[in-house]
């Protein structure tokens, strides 16, 4: 097929503002296109050569395209530059200069779509020494054979400026009409797209095998599946009602969603937006390789930076270091990620997307070799508001955003690419900040691991309850300690070590080591939250719940000037919590 057939349609698309007309033009184009190149025509129409997830961009710099144009048109670069300054569109300049081309070669061969595609592909993939000249020559070669109009679109395509505005959904509509037998088949085609994120592949399968072929379309390794998304409700009662009185509630981890494709030893990671992020998480790749027992699998997990010495989850921002190429190795060493798997879409040749969630969850549980670093998302099966609320508090306190509650019904398939009611997220509708530091008493400790082996990984801290002269736990704190602190802590705490919980300490948590309440340290946190685990102010704000500090961190100040009875009191913590809430209302 000649490239001119395609550019004629581009021109018509550009001249219309009506989506329906745009679809009609595309239908016409697709009908004319030979089946073997329908994928290429689809990509080119969106200004690409491959689906986005392959990360292969055309993006030739304007400067370079200008050099190619000068070569093909026999003009000086300066002349073209001047024209470009006026039009702002090198495509238009190309059209103009080729119209005025001085010599037209007798050997000019009309461009075919195939040749355009192959050449652009070579341009996109050229790297290393001499690649700039190669790109210029390849492009100049195409321009030399192009009509002025074709040159306009070629230049726009290579510089990433072909902005026809043809959305994915418009292409799906056009495919349904051109090859599916009518708009009614749109859902089947869309599902294939949701399972592959590749419009070219879908178009080809449809053109070659008809709609019947697409009905059996399956997920495949290497093609990211468009993610299933959750609706949102703000009360546990509503959530339970919506899900039929019973659901599986999972921690909503606050990290980065990844979709891992494992094919033997080869692992690919895709982001929520389907970018290939494999190189950002070498540690996650290794975890998938070593913990997934199946040979082939597609798994979804939340990737979270965890302080391995203490087991504490780090705030989401910690993952930002993974965005900068040069920091990845360092970040992976300092804060390696842990994975919390929450779905499986494919295993050893079997597409699981149409299985109910209970079945998928079971497979997931079977094929993951769980460890500290790779676990199933923490979950409970729940049918009452109290337990759901408690689990929610526990999740928030642990550093999660809240819960994702999922349907247990038979129809709970994986709805690729859709936001639906099979998953409902339950997040807090406020966000607050803890502005003051607090002085807390060290009542227990947990042994460290990894770099912290031989010292403490975290301390169990308590506030003072003046009314009954006890110490009530409020957080486990493992952040903010320098290497010096860590080295001296066991020695500093040695004199207070006892073999059991001190009678004045009120704790439901089992520490590895207990202390006589004596040492006071200064701590700051992100906020004060309700907690089902800690005993501080138990039942005061809500029955069955205490208060906890989220993301606590030692400020570096040992309050040797304070006795444990001078530490921040439970009453003060309650006041801080209430103030925090008032602040939120004002905001
Ligand atoms: P948000 O910004 O609230 O994460 P979103 O639009 O990215 O919203 P939603 O589908 O609304 O995504 O919420 C679910 C998101 O929560 C997932 O995209 C995923 O990254 C994250 N998540 C964390 N833990 C889980 C879990 N156990 N199950 C499903 N998703 C989870």
Describe the structure.
- By secondary structure, this protein is of the alpha+beta class.
- It folds into 3 domains: 156 residues, DNA ligase, ATP-dependent, N-terminal domain (DNA ligase i, domain 1, Orthogonal Bundle), CATH 1.10.3260; 198 residues, 2-Layer Sandwich (D-amino Acid Aminotransferase, Chain A, domain 1), CATH 3.30.470.30; 149 residues, OB fold (Dihydrolipoamide Acetyltransferase, E2P), CATH 2.40.50.140.
- Helices cover 38% and strands 22% of the residues.
- It has 19 helices and 22 strands.
- The strands form 4 sheets. Strands 13, 14, 15, 16, 17, 18, 19 and 22 form an 8-stranded mixed beta sheet that branches. Strands 3, 4, 5, 6, 7, 8 and 9 form a 7-stranded mixed beta sheet that branches. A 5-stranded mixed beta sheet has the order 1-12-11-2-10, covered by helices on one side.
- Strand 7 and strand 8 form a beta hairpin.
- It is elongated, with a radius of gyration of 31 Å.
- The model has no long low-confidence stretch (mean pLDDT 92).
- The structure holds adenosine-5'-triphosphate.
- Adenosine-5'-triphosphate binds next to strand 1 and strand 2.
Shape: elongated
What is the CATH topology classification name of the largest domain? D-amino Acid Aminotransferase, Chain A, domain 1
Integer count of domains: 3
Average pLDDT confidence is: 92
Bound molecules: adenosine-5'-triphosphate
Q: Largest sheet, if any?
A: 8 strands, mixed
Number of strands: 22
The CATH architecture name of the largest domain reads 2-Layer Sandwich
Distance between the termini: 62 Å
- Spans of at least 5 consecutive residues whose pLDDT stays below 50 are none
